[in-house]
Design a protein that fits this description.
Layout lengths: L8 H11 L4 H5 L6 H9 L6 H11 L4 H4 L6 H19 L14 H16 L3 H21 L3 H21 L2 H18 L2 H13 L6 H14 L6 H20 L3 H18 L13 H14 L3 H10 L8 H17 L3 H14 L1 H6 L1 H13 L5 H10 L2
Helix pairs in contact: 1-4, 6-8, 6-9, 7-8, 7-9, 8-9, 9-10, 10-11, 11-12, 11-13, 12-13, 13-14, 13-15, 14-15, 15-16, 16-17, 17-18, 17-20, 18-20, 20-21
Length: 393
């Protein structure tokens, strides 16, 4: 008899549905997915995506981990990652302690440079390297902000909290990501920076699944209020990014009209910003960012033919950030698989692994796609078997 950790998400969905005394048709009526898809998921013919699983968990009134089981890595991998992020947890926990008389070991300008460097490390998908260095920078900047409180120090501290959030998300620690965003809001308030506060609301909105769409929309709206009067390049870029966040929230709700409106608004703002705004609070807002979000919205709404057409038209510039390139390749793999192009799907997963192994290995869509390929391929090729072993299947 399989242990709980050995059972699949599909098995858990079927088990929890029966515990709730619901038929497949009754459960499908409570989620934004069809009876046919639910039936295929429970039979193992289709993959239970992250959004689908979140919707089922919300409909059944249970925690999503009841359905997902262990994290999207093996238990050993998760233990190693937990040890890696533990010092980050500790540095976030000590945010409000008064200084003990010590002065920062490094001057503020050096710490600002270090905060920017760590952001670049995450963009380059050097996640472990950034995670190891981050706690020391957070601790020094916390001390600097308390002892010599300047806007520069508070902004840099907010930057490190955003980096902590990104690392936590990419390595599969959503609880830590929530704490990091709370700390980011606290630092943004001390910096009196409405753009930083707005970005925090944008990131919070993206953390909510289909069952929490009203909350996601409220968070985006709160961010938009913060930058409503901003006319600088910084303010326009943040406003544009908030529209992209709103498009993602709308896509999860299946609101095609809202998606189109927010994408159009973001494109207009990208024209006004001119070029990619990489210098604006780690956003890299621009026309390519809008295009990738439009494709992401199509994936979320399961409009895979549209998503495939968009993906095949994308030509990423050579200077594209590694993290963005790898994410695009994984998304491309998803739409290729969902439209029946299995070989192309695997090629893009391999390319994503080559570009950013750490990010790709722990991305939930990588696991979903590999699982789907294993279910639908007539035979398991050596590259596919190798990929499955690499992610811990």
């Amino acid at each position: 008899m399989p242990t709980p950790d050995e059972r699949s998400t599909a098995d858990r969905i079927r088990e929890q549905r029966k515990r709730a005394r619901l038929s497949q048709r009754e459960l499908s009526a409570r989620i934004p997915y069809s009876y046919s898809l639910l039936n295929q998921v429970e039979c193992g013919a289709r993959v239970a995506t992250a959004d689908f699983t979140a919707a089922v968990a919300a409909a059944l009134g249970i925690d999503i981990t009841t359905l997902t089981g262990p994290p999207h890595v093996t238990e050993m991998q998760h233990g190693l990652l937990a040890s890696l992020v533990r010092p980050i947890r500790e540095s976030l926990a000590l945010y409000d302690l008064a200084p003990d008389g010590n002065m920062p070991a490094r001057p503020t300008d050096k710490l600002v440079h270090e905060a920017d460097r760590l952001c670049q490390e995450v963009r380059a998908t050097h996640l472990r390297k950034a995670a190891r260095a981050l706690p020391g920078v957070i601790n020094d900047l916390t001390l600097a902000a308390h002892t010599v409180p300047t806007t520069e120090a508070w902004r840099a501290l907010a930057s490190t909290y955003r980096t902590a959030h990104d690392i936590a998300i990419k390595l599969g620690f959503p609880d830590l990501a929530i704490v990091a965003l709370d700390r980011m809001g606290w630092a943004a308030e001390h910096a009196s920076d409405p753009c930083l506060a707005a970005i925090r609301q944008y990131r919070r909105a993206l953390g909510h699944a289909e069952a929490e769409q009203c909350l996601g929309r409220r968070l985006v709206a709160a961010g938009q209020e913060l930058v409503a009067d901003q006319t600088t390049r910084e303010g326009l870029a943040v406003a544009g990014q908030l529209h992209l966040g709103a498009s993602a929230v709308a896509a999860r709700a299946g609101d095609t009209n809202a998606v189109e409106q927010h994408i159009a608004a973001a494109r207009e703002l990208a024209d006004r910003v001119g070029g990619e705004a990489r210098e604006v609070h780690w956003l890299s807002f621009g026309q390519m960012n809008v295009t990738l979000h439009e494709m992401g919205a199509a994936i979320a709404m399961r409009q895979f033919d549209d998503a495939l057409r968009q993906a095949r038209a994308v030509r990423l510039p050579p200077a594209t950030l590694t993290s963005r390139r790898a994410r695009f390749l994984v998304d491309r793999a998803v739409v290729e698989m969902e439209t029946g192009h299995l070989d192309a799907s695997l090629r893009h997963l391999v390319a994503a692994r080559r570009a950013a192994p750490e990010q790709t290995r722990y991305h939930p869509r990588t696991r979903e796609t590999v699982t789907g390929l294993l279910h639908t391929s007539r035979r398991t090729s050596d590259p596919l078997a190798n990929m499955a072993t690499w992610i811990g299947l």
